[in-house]
Write a structure and sequence with these properties.
It holds the Pfam family rve_3. One of its GO terms (molecular function) is nucleic acid binding. This is Transposase InsO and inactivated derivatives. The protein has 350 residues and is an alpha/beta fold. Helices cover 43% and strands 11% of the residues. A five-stranded mixed beta sheet has the order 4-3-2-5-6, with helices on both faces. Strands 1-7 form a two-stranded antiparallel sheet. A hairpin with a 6-residue loop joins strand 2 and strand 3. It starts with a helix and ends with a helix. The relative contact order is 0.09. The C terminus is likely disordered.
């Protein structure tokens, strides 16, 4: 409980801020207290709610009635059933003891509301894997998506590896099947193409079989690549790859009716990668191309844009009501950055 001295200091700080022109509500929010709490403290009162004596509700179950509920739950025929099943079966027998929610509440109070049965208990997902990239060739993310064919129900499989710092597609390929051997081929080719054998990047993927097969894991170990995986059934942990596939499949020339052959799919993906890496101005990196940022050219390009905008404002200052557009180069990039006040952060700290 907050001491009297702490309450007095808080009131003094709020009064000082209010005298300087701050709103009472904003000043109280900075201290983490409500406006009504401040007014009560300022009047010399204190919160009596924690010490208040609350009478037992008149409609509450008696101790005997609560024990009757527990006795029923302890019977062998009901011992493995949830309250929803117990209440329904009791109703068929012409017996009513309490509602389903009351059954849950009584079991919880008695520390008997636990997972039962052979099915794995539900578990809360911990914090996602987090990676920071200060430059290219530090963190890659990759995934596999389906490409439709001319035959309904048959698909090709597009593998794509992205450098999260530059958003560059460092390698991609279309295969007729999805397996760890194809994944191994693509990873080796990407490392050789980017010439990063002596300083391999971190590689993040989801939990698909093609990303966790023994052949691929052996390849990663040989290349000294540290793999990272998303949490099970959480697609947002691999957001860069998911966003890339959306961009790919929403291109105007994407064949929505399917690819006629594997060669046609590979040709289309090749043209898409060339466009994306060398022509597409990416909004997440100040509208430079991924290849320009990957090669470190974005600083000079953005500096020239800044000079152009400064000259335009100097030529017609009356047309500018504020600063020019922000052409500052984007700094480090995070995969799954930590969110302030995220309750999962405590799990990570533990």
């Amino acid at each position: 409980m907050t001491s009297a001295l702490d309450r007095q200091q808080a009131v003094e700080l709020v009064n000082e801020a209010h005298a300087a022109g701050a709103r009472l509500k904003s000043a109280c929010a900075e201290l983490g207290i409500g406006l009504n709490t401040y007014r009560r403290w300022a009047a010399g009162g204190h919160d009596k709610r924690p010490d208040a004596v609350r009478p037992k509700p008149a409609k509450a179950l008696s101790d005997a009635e609560r024990q009757a509920v527990l006795d029923v739950c302890h019977q062998p025929e009901f011992a493995s059933l949830p309250p929803a099943q117990i209440v329904a079966r009791l109703a068929d027998q012409g017996t009513y003891l309490a509602s389903e929610s009351t059954f849950y509440r009584i079991l919880h109070d008695a520390n008997e509301q636990h997972h039962r049965g052979r099915m794995a208990p539900p578990r809360q997902s911990g914090p996602p894997p987090r990676h920071r990239a200060d430059g290219p060739l530090q963190t890659w993310t990759w995934d596999v998506t389906y490409l439709p064919t001319a035959v309904r129900g048959q698909f090709y499989y597009l593998y794509m590896i992205i450098d999260i710092y530059s958003r560059k597609i460092v390698d991609s390929e279309v295969f007729a099947s999805e397996n760890a051997n194809n994944s191994s081929i693509l990873i080796r080719r990407a490392v050789l193409r980017e010439q990063c054998c002596h300083a391999p990047p971190k590689l993040h993927a989801d939990n698909g079989g093609a990303m966790k097969g023994a052949t691929l894991l052996a390849t990663l170990q040989k290349l000294e690549i540290n793999p990272s995986f998303s949490r099970p059934r959480v697609s947002n942990d691999n957001a860069f790859s998911e966003a890339m596939f959306r961009t790919c499949k929403y291109r105007p020339d994407y064949p929505t009716k399917g690819f006629e052959s594997l060669e046609a799919a590979r040709e289309w993906v090749h043209h898409f990668v060339q466009w994306y890496n060398h022509e597409h101005r990416h909004s997440g990196i100040r509208y430079v191309t991924p290849d320009e940022r990957h090669r470190g050219l974005d600083h000079d390009i953005l500096a020239r844009r800044h000079q152009l905008y400064q000259a335009a404002r100097a030529a017609n200052p009356e047309r500018w009501s504020g600063d020019t557009r922000n052409w500052t180069p984007v700094g480090p990039v995070w995969l799954n950055p930590e969110i302030q006040n995220d309750p999962r952060a405590s799990l990570e700290a533990a």
